[in-house]
Description:
- About 30% of the residues lie in helices and about 25% in strands.
- By secondary structure, it is of the alpha/beta class.
- β11 (about 195), α5 and β12 form a beta-alpha-beta unit.
- α4 (about 160-170) crosses α6 (about 210-225) and α7 (about 240-250) packs parallel to α9 (about 285-295).
Amino acid sequence: MTMLLKAGRVVDPSSGHDDTADVRIDGEAVVEVGADLAADGAEVVDCAGLWVMPGFVDLHTHLREPGFEDAEDIATGSAAAAAGGYTTVAAMANTLPVCDTAAVAELVERRGRDVGLVDVRPVGAITVGLAGERLAEMGELYDSRARVDFFSDDGVPVSDALIMRRALQYAARFDAVIANHSQDMDLTEDAQMNEGRMSSVLGLPGWPHEAEEVMIARDLLLAAGLGARLHVPHVSTAGSVALLRLAKERGVRVTAEVTPHHLHLDDSVVATYDPVFKVNPPVRTTADVTALRAALADGTIDAVATDHAPHPHEQKDQEWDYAPCGMLGLETAFPLVVTDLVATGELSLLDAVRLFTTGPAGVRDMGGHGGPITADAPANLTVVDPDATWIVDGRALHSRAHNTPFQDEELTSRPVHTLLRGRWTLQGGAVQW
Length: 433
Ligand code: DOR
């Protein structure tokens, strides 16, 4: 089947292309990009006024399967991803069983393929059972059919510096990436929210920014010494940004991501005591938000990653202290960045798209996703309506859980079509199962 995406604004960070063009797709691949292409019997999809971009890449998704299907499973999470414009997501390892064996990684990857809405790339655990004590069989995970080249105990840190050093050293043998959840557990014992003026006002135990920064500093030193690849997930503080900037200047092989919620929310939201705003790391101060936004523009942060973390309402809707950390992200991430940063002129559209495509695709092998949009490339594409305005409603999202911190916010822009290797996964706003 051939298809012609007609007269969209084609935004492709890998070539720097940002102009009106037609995109012809034949079967699974793009075959031609150019102005005024003839239909020649192709199905014509009118994209006038729409943005045509590489399918988005999420480095940080909790799909919860196996083990926590009351929160999400690979089918519901894949649907949320397709609706959010993603064509591939990295599934975090904190499942039950933990993704610390080839069997679990292959199961997750195969289940993703069976659902067929996005390519699911498993993240391997760094340590067995996320216990921080013994290295997982990283080599076996890498050699498996799932080809795991990215490891994280996300949700919990690798606290022991020797274990972390060994993980970096071992992963470096096959140029894999280690992503450590940066949290000093001693500094965050009983912590409930960012430590600062708000935590004093609210009387909640504080989670100091240094708890993140000391661990990032340690990991940067370890990675630098070994020439190993480090990825820093969900960066949340101005101090972390400064450390990353320095490390990059010095040539450390480090990449970093930020979540939409850390770009958008500050700790004043905790005054609601609504646990939907409880997240790890916690939302910080407006000064931190400003520093994170600046780090996007200057390349210190490579990717926007969702940390999509569904939780069933019977667990999430408890008193603040008892609620688990985590927020939905897949369906609101790009619209939020457009609303907050692109529509306001703070970030160019090309830069925003880069943070969802070539940026994350440069962190690990994401199987040819993230562009370019060019002849012979797989037709993994997202089409966004920049003029769509919509009100976020957790119950209308595709995830099994509803814990969005953006409930009732009005957002500008929304994905209308997503194509995975030339097949609709989202068409006219409807997920194509
Ligand atoms: O808020 C979070 N939730 N942060 C994490 O690092 C883990 C995640 C989860 O798994 O719920």
